[in-house]
Amino acid sequence: MKDVLDALSTGLLFVLPLVISVGVAVISVGAAWHALLFKRDSRSALGWVVICLAIPVIGGICYFLFGVNRVRARAQRQPGEGRRWLVDFERGLRSPPIPDQGKENNASTNSRALEIDYPVGIARAAATVTGRELLENNKVTILRNGEAAFPAMLSAIASARETISLTTYIFENNRTGLSFIRALAGAKARGVDVRVVIDGLGAWYSIGIVRALRKEAINVQRFNPPRILPPSLGVNLRNHRKILLVDSKVAFAGGMNIGDRHLLKRIENKNPTADVQFCFEGPVVTQLAEIFDDTWSKSGGEDIKDILPPMDGDSHNSRHSHNNDKHQKGTAMCRAIADGPDDNLDKLELVFVAAMDSAQRSIRIMTPYFLPTQGMIAIFQSAALRGLQVSIVLPAKNNLSYVHWATRNMLWELLSCGVKVYYQPGVFVHTKLLLIDDAYALVGSANIDPRSLRLNYELGVEIYDKAVVAELIEDFEKAVGLSAPVTQQVLDERSLLERTRDAVCWLVSPYL
Question: How many CA atoms lie within 13 A of 205 on its CB side?
Fold first, then answer.
């Protein structure tokens, strides 16, 4: 017996290292192969291949945790459709084109087109990419900073009679956050169906906020919460959407989180953050409700098959259907765009590109985080060379220094072709705007960087309306007037150490 045990021990001494070596090779080479085959950005693919092979096992594990950004919710698969392991990675599904909205057989759209110099090219591209209609008769109200946005949102919650749906990245556990909890609890006590989604990582900004909501019996879900056991794959995929829906009559959307940080007039605010929120009334609320439904389902909530009010004569029952004809008619045409590392992948980026490529006179961009792809950079350069006004406003002081440094490394490419870049002083400005000519705006939660366009679940809303766009352009030009232009001389005056730091941050920008 002893001889048998000795033989087994000796065998294990030879076999075990071989098994471990094979396992290490399978994990490392397999992860590198996966990155090589499926990553679309060549720098990202090369970086992950090097990491996987240079740091065995750990590199592969990091890749599968942070590098794989293609998910497909079980609920989104069609009946009988299997999971596709080796196709469509990092390639969102293309929705079938809906009928052109700029053709002569669409009288209502044509009449509106003549009225507001309708950018037909953008609308056609967005319709094809999203599969959603461009809806008329929406009222859009611009709410600047928390001083305007939070009272309006709390008032809407106080008036709720049937449903409240809220999703946000950060829900702070401070005075503002507590006021929202009280309002939601009051609505819950009135019998309103209240549903809240907070990003699982964003919830870490305010420890205890989920517990505080659940204490009030509010139905709250955390989106993709990080965990060790079992490990949460795709921890890098975050829900960055911000939507508040009340009774299917009014919706608030934009880039604003819930918290004191957006109250600029509060003296004790140590990290003031300027931002803009938008209030929507009209048919586009239906599309925003659909996107909330998608977010809720992905967070583990039950399917809400009747969340959407009926449209186009649909007579099916809906708990919101009787509100559908009570919207105050507005002048804006709007379309909501869902974007994320799933079947909605690339939708916002494609609309961004189509919009900028369709510009005839001007492109105005305001964003806190600016790391465009090479394709976008080429469009900026081409537009400026064609004589268009191309202006980009960035915060002079960023809350994410490494993003600011990475941006500085590539700005010369834009300046060399006549693109105007400005650093906005003062408080950190979190506003995200794309303004094309004088009749189109794209607003929402997305920044122009790899995280927003490749990893996050984001929301965009198109606004076709001269009055609203004129108001946003006025805000934009005021910001330009207060800002310092970025010049090639400013970039050249960086020290060698600063330039090296900026270049390193730029190099890893696909992973930021």
Answer: 17
Smallest CA-to-CA distance from 35 within 14, 54, 9, 15 is with 54
pLDDT for 324 equals 45
Amino acid at 353: V
pLDDT at 435: 98
Q: Which ranges in 71-106 belong to alpha helices (H)?
A: none
CA atoms within 13 A on the CB side of 69: 30
Burial 208-232 (b: 16+ CB within 10 A, else e): ebbebbeeeebebbbbbbeeeeeeb
Q: Is 200 helix (H, G, I), strand (E, B) or coil?
A: coil
Beta bridge partners of 199: 223
Residue 61's H or E segment, with its range, is helix 58-62
pTM score, whole prediction: 0.82
Three-state secondary structure call for residue 119? coil
Cα–Cα distance for residue pair 421/63, rounded to 1 Å: 35
The token pair at 237 is 């995929």
Q: Are strands 362-366 and 433-436 parallel, antiparallel or unpaired?
A: antiparallel
pLDDT digits (tens, 9 = 90+) for 343-364: 888 899 999 999 999 999 999 9
Question: Tell me: the pLDDT tens digits for 315-350?
Answer: 333 444 434 444 457 899 999 999 998 888 889 999
CB 488 within 8 A of CB 415: yes
Q: How many other CB atoms sit within 10 Å of the CB of residue 79? A: 4
Angle between helices 374-385 and 401-415 (to 10 degrees): 40
Q: Residue 458: which H helix or E strand, with range? A: strand 458-464
Q: Which residue is it, tokens 């599309």? A: 287
Determine contact, residues 508/46, Cβ cutoff 8 Å.
no
Answer yes or no: are the C-beta atoms of 421 and 377 closer than 8 Å. Answer: no
| CA 107 – CA 162 distance, rounded (Å) | 36
